[in-house]
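Entry type: protein chain
Record version: 2
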Amino acid sequence: MTTQMQNMYANSTVPCSVILVNDTAHNNAVKVAADATHVPVGISTNAARTRPDPDFSQSTQAQQVAAIAGESIGVHCNGSTGVDLVCNATWAIGDFIMADGSGFGITATSTNYYVGWAQTVGVVGALCPVNVMIGYKA
């Protein structure tokens, strides 16, 4: 896995392994993507703030928070490969992936921005690896 990680400012509570967008309320700030109409910045780290180990449990809330408002957060940016993303719809290898209303990954539809493409088949509720390659699906 290759990572292009950047430290950014969490402007709200950010879960692990979700799609992020810029938040203009603070310099270098990000927030969870609420849809795919804004250009994504990347994907939040899968290392939880209270247990910085990527082997966290998706079912334990305390372990799935990457940062709370005001903290620094690691963001996997363009060029990162094999990055864990919470899957919220089935997808095929090579599909472009965009954010749903919770910042989870779903198959990209036209006239939306995508965060990257799927390395494996998407399994709902699982962490599925994607390559971060931000773009727009016409």
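Comment: The CA atoms of residues 24 and 44 lie 17 Å apart.
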